[in-house]
Predict the 3D structure of the following.
Amino acid sequence: MANFDLTRINCQFLDRHLTFPLLEFLCGKEIYNQQELLEYILETVNKTNMIDYTMDTRKRLNLSQEMPDELVQRKAEVLATLKQLQNEVAPIMKATDILKNGESMKDSKTFVNALQKDYNFKVEHLESAYKLAKYLYECGNYQESTSYLYFCLIVMSPNDKNYLNVLWGKLAAEILTLNWNTALEDLTRLRDYIDSANFSTIQALQQRTWLIHWSVLVFFNHPKGRDLIIEMFLYKPLYLNAIQTMCPHIMRYLATAVVINRTRRNALKDLIKVIQQESYTYRDPITEFLECLYVNFDFEGARLKLHECQTVILNDFFIVACLNEFVEDARLMIFETFCRIHQCITISMLADKLNMKPNEAECWIVNLIRNARLNAKIDSKLGHVVMGTQPLSPYQQLVEKIDSLSMRSEHLAGLIERKSKQNNKESIDSWKYY
Amino acid sequence: MSRFFANGSDSESESSEEEVQAPNFNKASAFQFSDDEEEVKRVVRSTKEKRYENLTSIIKTIRNHKKIKDIPNTLSSFEDLTRAYTKALPVISKEENGITPRFYIRCLAELEDFINEIWEDREGRRNLSKNNTKSLGTLRQKVRKYIKDFEEDLSRFREAPDQESEAEDEEAHVSDAGEAADDSYAGFKKEASVTAPKIAKSAPAKSVPADDEDSDDSIDWDSDSESETESSEDENQYQNMRERFLKRSTEKGEDKGDDDKRKDKRKEQKLKIRKRAEDDEDGEWETVVKGHVVEKPKMFEKDAEIDIPLVLAKLVEIMSARGKKRTDRRLQIDLLFELRDISDQHNLGVPVSVKIHFNIISAIFDYNQKISEPMKMEHWALLLEVMQSMMKLLLANADISISESVAEEHEEYITAPFYIRGCPLAAVERLDDEFTKLLKECDPHSNDYVSRLKDEMNVVKTIELVLQYFEQCGNPNERCRIYLRKIEHLYYKFDPEVLKKKRGEVPATTATSVDVMDKLCKFIYAKDDTDRIRTRAILAHIYHHAMHDNWFQARDLVLMSHLQDNIDAADPATRILYNRMMANLGLCAFRQENVKDAHHCLVDLMVTGKPKELLAQGLLPQRQHERSAEQEKIEKQRQMPFHMHINLELLECVYLVSAMLLEIPYIAAHEFDARRRMISKTFYQQLRSSERQSLVGPPESMREHVVAAAKAMRCGNWQACANFIVNKKMNTKVWDLFYESDRVREMLVKFIKEESLRTYLFTYSNVYTSISIPSLAQMYELPVPKVHSIISKMIINEELMASLDDPSETVVMHRSEPSRLQALAMQFVDKVTNLVDVNEKVFDMKQGNFFQRGNMGNRGDRGYNRNQNNQGGNWGGQRRDNRNQRNRNQRGHHKNQQQQQQQQVQTIDEE
């Protein structure tokens, strides 16, 4: 399944620290050579300050149990730097702790003022706080890093050169500490900042591409994310354009999100348009599934693709949690489309198309009928499902049209009435002048 | 679609006015002309003398007018002259055996030269008064028309020794006069024996008056010879003098002696002039040329030490004559070549050589004074050669930098970093333009064109050299310009390697033209700061992609560049390129099975009915002076050379076929829909014109084939349809023009099958309750899943009221035909809906402006209308006016509505 694996591409757009979960996930999947993967992880880890993680990886690679001197030395160095940075920031943090309890915490401006007035706060302090946060992050201490970053965000003005970095750092740290709620907040803040800041076109595109990749992590883990991902990727032209030009592979996640979101069925049409447009740059079983089902009405193809989808999802870190939902919803989609087209279906064929056993399928359909989601009857003697839908009679059509007509006229009349009332008042007013 | 005619020649309007008027003048004069002819019937004795006298006097006035450049008067005198000549015509034919008298021809020749000179001199022409300009145009046309009758005489005159050569206007006037006089003298000697008796006979009658007048003029011959008109008078004098010599040479001995004296002086001047080797010179001239060869070394003093400053000084001296009216341009070129040889002989170094090369190039460009006309072939060859050798020199010597930014005084020829002023970029651009002009000049179907086209290689090579040079040392801007030149030679050429590479037949590392194009264009996208170069590069890039079937890349480029939005603001050449690009994109979409997109791309071009004009592949036949000659000239300059043309028949066929594939199923689906819109107007026109024919024969032309196919498709007969579209005739006419024609044909048949199936289902679904899918598949020779998919799509889109019955594999139709009453009711509802739509629209529209604060929206309900009328009385004057007016409108509106509704009810009743 390596040919549908997107980890390699996704990692290009993620922070070094964000890639570790992905890589670790892959280790458990046996798609790639375990040894090579671990070596790659080691190499990546070496670029950070996470000494313990490095050691752990070395152990897994069966390298010497002893810590090499070089590493020992580095560890000492790291600790020393950390100490130094902490010392620099300590007074200001103490002050913050004190102020936190007071009134001045409510508003960032008053807070800054209070800091400056009472504790001799300077810009250099902010600088060192930022450095410390960065250093902590690099050491893998995300929790503490967030608190410093939070401080920075409050104190910093949006014009500061580090402001964007702080935003990014905060988002990364929140993601890594699995704080999805705050991560979502930070995500929106970062997005607003990117949209409003004056980047050159190419920079903005780059920033958005990164944001898109990071946000996928958040969206699939936050309960509200499934609506938001559609909202952001599909209905914000700037982001849709970014996906189309820079990273069409994001279509996979967008498609998954649409499939598992039953309430947003109308997004499907737009999605399919985009998929068709980009079909030459990116295709994978998930987009192909939708294409088969809604463009070509090739149910056999859809069935096969659905089968492939399962393995793809199983091996994708981002969406692995949605596997069952996806399969269930995809089946429903196939069935719905089927029902719209057919008036009589044999259960055995249906079972075949849905990748189910006939008994299971019958049971499934019975459940659907029982839940009143389907107007149909089962002819068990012949093994058929007969749809109960009747086409619109001309009479009904007529009534429907007239219905809308009367609605519209009423609305119009209402408007007019309001206007005339207003006018009456006006004319009465004008009377007074005579 | 007047994409590029919109602002084509606004600036030319003034001159075009003048052109329009010209024919009227001609008509008038022609009328008078014939009138006079009738009068001439009476012949009187001694007419000849009278007539000739008349003629000479008019000629004299013309001369005087010319002298002060009084063009309107010249024009009227010229008209007098022609009239007088017509009068004299019978006499001439009788007395002179129909030979036109020389002085008359001479006058005509002079006049022509005079006009040409003024005409050429654009600067001067612009400064002329409006009246003068107008007359000049008229005069020029008249003279041109008139002298056609005398062409033979004129050419003989120009050849003959007493001529004042065509280049008269370029010559130093004094020497010119001398030459002419000399010529007439020499010519006299030669000719004397032949013509003597004849002239002798006629001379006495005429020479006396002419003599008197002319000798008066000739008194101040030497001092007053500044203007060339004067000098030509002198020539005339000598002609007369020759006649005098014939009769009484001894009497005029004094005159002759005078002549001889001057001759010595003139000889020197003459030698200089003779140097240019006229093609049409006779043997007598050649000896003079030889004389010049002897003189050549005169360029430098015999024992002068030839070094760089000297050569440069000479160069400056030669070039300073550039652009002057009487400079002999050919002489200049020759001199420059000579200078180059000299500098090469003396090893003066590469920089000097480059400089001279550069000057040769500009001299060659200068040779041709008319911008619209191409240069001569031999010059062209010379130019290419010089250009290439110069570029080679430049490339071989990296320490020379040549650019426009170097000021004259900072040029450096002696020590190492050399600086030369000049711009090879401009030169190569001009060279390229000249090449296009050359191509456009010759007939595209002749071998001439092919042989000319072979030079394309050389041009590309030259551009390549310049490009190399600028890649070494050139700022991004210049590189963009030269890249664009290369792109413009590249983009329309098909490279089969690209397709092979796509199929993996050649290794992926081979550099194809698409790769080259990519590289060049990307550089321009990144570096260019003038919008025009980028736009053109994008257009060419898309064109190239489309040509090689890179449909998606081409489409994305179009969409991302947002060209459609602002192409209307571009210059005509760019708009033409845009149209060409669109045409090609349409063809590409068609090849890539995107019929709808193909139609979209082509519809703008085809709907106007003049794709030929829009693609600049020929002018439409002119209707009633739609454009003036000036405008036509401009449009001609824009035309594409033939080898870059897009086949129009192919284009139209692709358009019509894609329109057919879209339109026919649509017609079938919406047969009874009141709101049906046509997709393609052009296609409808074709259909209608075929329906108008009382008898439709078997199709002959491409259009007839498509129409016949469309008719077959309407009854779902795919076989017939496919046969009409794909057959031997259509193959040779259209489809074989595609690179992979077989694939295209297969695709076409596939589409025809599918669309025919859809049409069939739309058209005949009401006669079936159910249709078996396998039998449909058999009928249309399509695989069952495909049929299934097509029908499913139709059901989902609610085009077909049916559903599938899986166990029996049939389509069950649900479409219950509405009863008559129901149908009418539906129609009625549709119309009422329209009414409500209109109401809403009116409401929305009025809401925005004046009526916002008033009670205005009462159109919906008649009751309010009445109320309002009552209120109306209470309102102030101005307001009341408004109100009443509005009420009237409203009432009118309501009346309309009522009428409409009544009508509708009536129609329903009738039905």
In short: Residues 766 and 815 of chain B are 7 Å apart (CA to CA). Residues 47-157 of chain B form one domain. Chain B touches chain A through 48 residues (CB under 8 Å).
